[in-house]
Amino acid sequence: MKKIITWKDILSIKKKKYLFKILKLINKMRLTKKIYPSNNDIFSAFKYTNFDKIKVVILGQDPYHKFGQANGLAFSVNYGIKIPPSLINIFKELKNNVNNFYIPNHGCLIKWALQGVFLLNTILTVEEGKPNSHEKIGWSFFTDFVIKKISFYRKNIIFLLWGNNAKKKINLINTKKHFIFTSSHPSPYSARKSFFGCKHFLKTNKILNILHKKKICWNL
């Protein structure tokens, strides 16, 4: 019987020691600065989506940097928090190309994560009011490692790469084994370049249907 690979298998002792060093640094920062998300939510993407259940990978850059927003899932915010512009544009694209999608009154994407949409930020923490402030503390080495492992151990994963930062990760993915769709970022500054009209959500479910996998219910 083939062994099911889990996040525990992927995160070897060596990687756990590496993460411990980053978390130790972050805890030191928390003494004088506001860091998001909370320690309990940093690894939410791994908590809600099991390694062997991943169907889709959506890459974000780093968490939202305002109070109460970040919950450890890329593009997602906590219940009761105003929906950020990028996520509003994601919902608009869904509305325009997925039948029966209704725009929700919240931006929490846990339901997607539980269906196999791995919502990974390439940087997992941020200082309040300072986007990309933790770019150089070591997170990218860890998340690059994770992307490589998904590419190596899994097959037929659908990668949705929005914006230049996400597109840089293509070289970590075996393009012969997986599906990759790219576009501009859903930010208001770039959504009209190629994100609007990309139909990535529709294409994702068409591929899952061909693969005889359960389609993603995008409604929240």
Task: Walk me through the structure.
This protein is 36% helix and 11% strand. The protein has 220 residues and is α/β, with parallel strands linked by helices. Helix 7 (164-167) links the parallel strand 5 and strand 6. The radius of gyration is 17 Å and the shape is globular.
Mean pLDDT: 95
Q: Give the helix level as a range of percent.
A: 25-40%
Unreliable segments (pLDDT under 50, ≥5 consecutive)?
none
**What is the global morphology?**
globular
Strand content: 5-15%
Number of strands: 6
Question: How many helical stretches?
Answer: 9
What order do the helices and strands follow? HHEHEHHEEHEHEHH
Strand order of the largest sheet: 3-2-5-6
Short recap of the structure:
This protein is an alpha/beta fold.
What descriptive keywords fit this protein?
two-stranded antiparallel ribbon, 9 helices, four-stranded parallel sheet, 220 residues, alpha/beta
Please give the structural blueprint.
Elements: H1 7-10, H2 13-30, E1 35-36, H3 44-48, E2 56-60, H4 85-97, H5 110-114, E3 117-121, E4 126-127, H6 139-153, E5 158-162, H7 164-167, E6 179-183, H8 191-195, H9 200-210
